[in-house]
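Study this chain:
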Amino acid sequence: MKKNLTVLFFSLFVLLVYSQQVPPISKTEFSEEPLKQVVLDTENNEITMQSVLNKHKGKITVIRFWASWCRDCILEMTDSHVLKEKNKKVDFIYLSLDKNFDAWKKGITKYELNSGDNYWFSVGWKNPFNEYIELNWIPRYMVIDQKGKIANYYAVSAKDIEIQNTINKLLEK
Protein backbone atom coordinates (compact mmCIF):
# COMPACT_ATOMS: atom_id res chain seq x y z
CA MET A 1 0.00 0.00 0.00
CA LYS A 2 2.78 2.41 0.98
CA LYS A 3 4.66 1.59 -2.24
CA ASN A 4 1.51 2.29 -4.31
CA LEU A 5 1.05 5.67 -2.64
CA THR A 6 4.67 6.57 -3.28
CA VAL A 7 4.31 5.69 -6.96
CA LEU A 8 1.08 7.67 -7.17
CA PHE A 9 2.60 10.79 -5.59
CA PHE A 10 5.70 10.53 -7.76
CA SER A 11 3.52 10.20 -10.88
CA LEU A 12 1.47 13.25 -9.92
CA PHE A 13 4.65 15.22 -9.26
CA VAL A 14 6.08 14.35 -12.67
CA LEU A 15 2.78 15.21 -14.34
CA LEU A 16 2.63 18.62 -12.66
CA VAL A 17 6.26 19.47 -13.36
CA TYR A 18 6.35 18.40 -16.98
CA SER A 19 2.83 19.14 -18.17
CA GLN A 20 2.06 22.10 -20.34
CA GLN A 21 2.02 25.49 -18.74
CA VAL A 22 -0.37 28.16 -19.98
CA PRO A 23 1.69 31.29 -20.64
CA PRO A 24 0.98 33.97 -18.01
CA ILE A 25 0.31 36.66 -20.63
CA SER A 26 -1.71 36.18 -23.79
CA LYS A 27 -0.08 38.11 -26.59
CA THR A 28 -2.36 39.95 -29.01
CA GLU A 29 0.05 40.56 -31.88
CA PHE A 30 3.28 39.31 -33.35
CA SER A 31 6.50 41.27 -33.10
CA GLU A 32 8.78 41.73 -36.09
CA GLU A 33 11.49 39.17 -35.29
CA PRO A 34 9.31 36.04 -35.04
CA LEU A 35 7.57 36.93 -38.30
CA LYS A 36 10.92 36.62 -40.08
CA GLN A 37 10.97 32.91 -39.21
CA VAL A 38 11.25 30.80 -42.35
CA VAL A 39 9.13 27.69 -42.85
CA LEU A 40 8.86 25.34 -45.81
CA ASP A 41 5.72 24.80 -47.87
CA THR A 42 4.74 21.43 -49.33
CA GLU A 43 6.77 22.14 -52.47
CA ASN A 44 9.91 22.67 -50.34
CA ASN A 45 9.87 26.45 -50.91
CA GLU A 46 10.94 28.79 -48.12
CA ILE A 47 8.42 31.35 -46.91
CA THR A 48 8.42 33.65 -43.89
CA MET A 49 5.73 33.50 -41.26
CA GLN A 50 4.90 37.10 -42.18
CA SER A 51 4.12 35.96 -45.73
CA VAL A 52 2.10 33.01 -44.45
CA LEU A 53 -0.05 35.29 -42.31
CA ASN A 54 -0.35 37.91 -45.06
CA LYS A 55 -1.91 35.25 -47.32
CA HIS A 56 -4.78 35.06 -44.85
CA LYS A 57 -5.19 38.72 -43.99
CA GLY A 58 -8.83 39.73 -44.10
CA LYS A 59 -9.90 36.23 -43.02
CA ILE A 60 -10.31 34.60 -39.65
CA THR A 61 -7.53 32.04 -39.41
CA VAL A 62 -6.93 29.11 -37.08
CA ILE A 63 -3.33 28.01 -36.67
CA ARG A 64 -2.78 24.44 -35.53
CA PHE A 65 0.66 23.29 -34.38
CA TRP A 66 1.10 19.55 -34.70
CA ALA A 67 3.40 16.68 -35.70
CA SER A 68 2.77 13.23 -37.13
CA TRP A 69 4.77 11.68 -34.26
CA CYS A 70 2.64 13.43 -31.61
CA ARG A 71 0.18 11.02 -30.02
CA ASP A 72 -1.95 13.84 -28.57
CA CYS A 73 -2.09 15.50 -32.00
CA ILE A 74 -3.27 12.30 -33.66
CA LEU A 75 -5.85 11.46 -30.98
CA GLU A 76 -7.27 14.95 -31.36
CA MET A 77 -7.27 14.99 -35.17
CA THR A 78 -10.97 14.13 -35.56
CA ASP A 79 -11.91 17.06 -33.33
CA SER A 80 -9.73 19.31 -35.46
CA HIS A 81 -11.55 18.17 -38.59
CA VAL A 82 -14.91 18.82 -36.90
CA LEU A 83 -13.79 22.36 -35.99
CA LYS A 84 -12.78 22.98 -39.60
CA GLU A 85 -16.03 21.52 -40.95
CA LYS A 86 -18.11 23.73 -38.62
CA ASN A 87 -16.24 26.85 -39.74
CA LYS A 88 -16.21 26.90 -43.53
CA LYS A 89 -15.54 30.67 -43.65
CA VAL A 90 -12.36 30.24 -41.58
CA ASP A 91 -8.90 29.56 -43.02
CA PHE A 92 -6.74 26.87 -41.41
CA ILE A 93 -2.95 26.84 -41.26
CA TYR A 94 -1.16 23.69 -40.11
CA LEU A 95 2.35 24.24 -38.75
CA SER A 96 4.28 21.02 -38.37
CA LEU A 97 7.03 20.18 -35.92
CA ASP A 98 7.84 16.89 -37.62
CA LYS A 99 11.44 15.77 -37.55
CA ASN A 100 11.80 15.52 -41.34
CA PHE A 101 10.15 16.62 -44.58
CA ASP A 102 9.05 13.14 -45.70
CA ALA A 103 7.36 12.29 -42.40
CA TRP A 104 5.54 15.62 -42.50
CA LYS A 105 4.32 15.10 -46.09
CA LYS A 106 3.13 11.57 -45.29
CA GLY A 107 1.34 12.93 -42.20
CA ILE A 108 -0.52 15.53 -44.27
CA THR A 109 -1.92 12.77 -46.48
CA LYS A 110 -2.51 10.22 -43.74
CA TYR A 111 -4.38 12.69 -41.51
CA GLU A 112 -6.20 14.43 -44.37
CA LEU A 113 -4.82 17.93 -43.87
CA ASN A 114 -4.73 18.78 -47.58
CA SER A 115 -7.60 21.26 -47.30
CA GLY A 116 -5.57 23.79 -45.31
CA ASP A 117 -2.25 25.55 -45.75
CA ASN A 118 0.62 23.35 -44.56
CA TYR A 119 4.06 24.50 -43.47
CA TRP A 120 6.97 22.84 -41.73
CA PHE A 121 9.48 24.25 -39.27
CA SER A 122 12.53 22.65 -40.87
CA VAL A 123 14.75 24.21 -38.19
CA GLY A 124 12.88 22.34 -35.48
CA TRP A 125 10.92 23.26 -32.41
CA LYS A 126 13.33 25.90 -31.11
CA ASN A 127 13.00 28.96 -33.32
CA PRO A 128 12.08 32.63 -32.85
CA PHE A 129 8.42 32.18 -33.83
CA ASN A 130 7.76 29.30 -31.46
CA GLU A 131 9.75 30.94 -28.68
CA TYR A 132 7.76 34.16 -29.11
CA ILE A 133 4.43 32.37 -28.74
CA GLU A 134 5.84 30.25 -25.90
CA LEU A 135 5.10 26.97 -27.64
CA ASN A 136 5.53 24.31 -24.98
CA TRP A 137 3.11 21.61 -26.08
CA ILE A 138 1.37 20.30 -29.15
CA PRO A 139 -1.28 20.25 -30.31
CA ARG A 140 -1.79 23.96 -29.86
CA TYR A 141 -4.24 26.32 -31.50
CA MET A 142 -4.28 30.04 -32.07
CA VAL A 143 -6.97 32.16 -33.71
CA ILE A 144 -5.90 35.14 -35.81
CA ASP A 145 -8.40 37.88 -36.61
CA GLN A 146 -9.06 39.54 -39.96
CA LYS A 147 -6.40 42.20 -39.28
CA GLY A 148 -3.68 39.68 -38.48
CA LYS A 149 -3.87 40.14 -34.70
CA ILE A 150 -3.95 37.26 -32.23
CA ALA A 151 -7.54 36.81 -31.07
CA ASN A 152 -7.04 33.56 -29.11
CA TYR A 153 -3.51 32.93 -27.94
CA TYR A 154 -3.61 29.52 -26.30
CA ALA A 155 -5.76 26.44 -26.72
CA VAL A 156 -4.60 22.83 -26.74
CA SER A 157 -7.72 21.18 -28.06
CA ALA A 158 -10.09 21.82 -30.92
CA LYS A 159 -12.85 21.16 -28.38
CA ASP A 160 -11.77 24.20 -26.34
CA ILE A 161 -14.95 26.28 -26.36
CA GLU A 162 -12.92 29.51 -26.44
CA ILE A 163 -11.79 28.74 -29.99
CA GLN A 164 -15.37 28.59 -31.26
CA ASN A 165 -16.43 31.55 -29.10
CA THR A 166 -13.58 33.62 -30.55
CA ILE A 167 -14.48 32.63 -34.10
CA ASN A 168 -18.15 33.47 -33.49
CA LYS A 169 -17.27 36.93 -32.11
CA LEU A 170 -15.01 37.64 -35.09
CA LEU A 171 -17.70 36.55 -37.54
CA GLU A 172 -20.10 39.05 -35.97
CA LYS A 173 -17.78 41.97 -36.76
